[in-house]
Write a structure and sequence with these properties.
The protein is of the alpha/beta class. It is 36% helix and 20% strand. It is built from 14 helices and 16 strands. The strands form 3 sheets. It has an 8-stranded parallel β-sheet. Strands 9-10-11-16-13-14 form a 6-stranded antiparallel β-sheet. Strands 12-15 form a two-stranded antiparallel ribbon. Helix 10 links the parallel strand 6 and strand 7. Bound molecules: beta-D-galactopyranose. Beta-D-galactopyranose binds at residues 61, 96-97, 145-147, 174, 176, 216, 243. Beta-D-galactopyranose (GAL) binds at residues 61, 96-97, 145-147, 174, 176, 216, 243.
Amino acid sequence: MILALRYFIQKIRLLLIFMRLQHSIMTKSMLLVVAILLFQSLHGEGSGEIAKTPPMGWNSWNCFRANINESKIREMANAMVNSGMKEAGYQYVIIDDGWATKQRDSTGHIIADATKFPHGIKALADYIHSKGLKFGIYSSPGCYTCQKLMGSIGHEQMDANDYASWGVDYLKYDWCNFPSIEKEALKTPIPECRAAFELMGNCLKKTGRPIVYSVNDECDKGTNDGALPWVKRIANMHRTGDDIKNNWDRMLYCLDLTADLWEYAAPGYWNDPDMLEVGNDSKEALWNHISPLTMTLQEYKTHFIMWCMVAAPLIAGNDLRSMKPEIREILTNKALIAIDQDPLGKQGRRVRKKDELEVWMKELSGGSVAVALFNRSSNPVSMTVHWKELGIHGTRTVSDLWMHTKLGNYKNSFTAVQIKSHEARILLLSPLK
Ligand code: GAL
């Protein structure tokens, strides 16, 4: 990245010298166009260096809340390897809120709660790296995190440097208590809020370590759309709504808030509808539940399918140590993960919505299209998708990605039958070979 930047600056210098030598306006404007194109290509290259596809991993919050410690996290890293999650593409093991103390040490450094992490964070990161995985951590731009533990205000560069020296590969930066607990109730003006998130982004960059920057910024709450051109420049992923819960309606709320933001997703930046609740039956997670308590197995499948359709970061939130086979089958479904991780990096979008029946499409590399026929109603239905509404034509090979079966070649449309209540039937439409 630094080399690319130096190379770019060198090129611009040469171009400017060359431009000074040229007198014709025509030549100058042509050179300017070349310079802009050069800048754009280098910028794209740089921003895509990390999170080229949506980050995949596991985070402690959904299943443990703040009740974390180093042995739980080590066990989770082991389980990520042993369960086949690592092989399926999950990489980051992320500790959420609950790891830090209420005060910094006497030299101002942020420190881990020694009763929970007696060997310190670096030792934990080393362990996770030794498993071939990556390590993520959590902080807030305010005085305190949401759990009232130390936040980064006034110590951003010091914290970023410490994170880099510990081997952190991912930071979740979460809006809480800014600038202080007393003032939380007052709405922070958007420019100040944005500046706080930009600051940490720049501090992370200055460390020189590639660290995925995941933000829950809330600067422009309720105006997600307006915030995106800004947030896309500073972060690799951005939470689109309030916290997910293990509940069908709440999952749909997170999905719907993400749906219309499809144009912004691209390699290097992803809209984040929040972490997965698939298979999360932990007691800790039920502290602020809403009824009904959990999603059904069918709803978990749909939740995962729709997260793949919107190219969401796939951050599991269940206890991997006791994962049931049917949950593992969902989370490690390679065909679905390939849709999420498709290198083209397009977020899927809703192309039809009628009552509670929806058609979603996601363009993929190689000319294929993933289609989800989404039945949000409480009855089974048949649904027909027309090539026209997807902007494609001719004959396509249709496969059912959940069943791993080729259904045949179809011209102009395809009808799926018996789509169950709360099911999203996921199809792949590929060009004929
Ligand atoms: C919330 C955030 C959650 C979790 C929690 C920790 O603001 O949305 O995902 O990080 O804070 O206190």
